[in-house]
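Bumping with the actual sequence this time:
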Amino acid sequence: KDEAKDAKDKIKELDPVKKAAERLEKENFQEVKDSLKQAIEQMPDLKELSKHLIIDETPEGLRIQIVDQNNMSMFKLGDAEPLPQTKKLLDVVAKVIAKIPNKISVTGHTDSNQYKRTDYSNWELSTDRANASRRVLESSGLDASRLIYVTGKSDTEPFVKNNPKADQNRRISIILHRMTPRILAIDSDSESKPPASSAPTKP
């Protein structure tokens, strides 16, 4: 019972820290949104591409998506190399997200149109596009150590759920992962470990 009470007391003590961290993270996410919007508005050649940038928050964190729209693609059809306008967008994204410390993931998505080739599918294409985007982000100043994964999900998570062939399903998703849940996880992990004095010593 005493141990349970001690654990509850520790969590109560941690609450103000967690709330402060959540507040700071929320402010950082809002700053990223505002900075991206401002940067694109100030660049005439990118202003028209603002509709291809979709930013929202998910349980994982702040999600920045570069999405195909109305027959205008961010990659050549069936190709993993980003088009010049896509590279410009990724460059802006990299410079903005470099200012906050959150870990980052990059995920490629495709529509459901299938390849005629048997040795290359939407799985390879979505993964290759994610990696190509990663390379642009890194060349634009993003610290590679902040990346936690780069992957492709083929057509398994359509943006337009009722139309798997829609242009918008072809996209790159960049997530700035939340840091605040780690506070409680780290604290719980430290509680689960035996005190140093009780650890067995080597003979």
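The tokens above came from a reply further down the thread. The chain has a mean pLDDT of 84.
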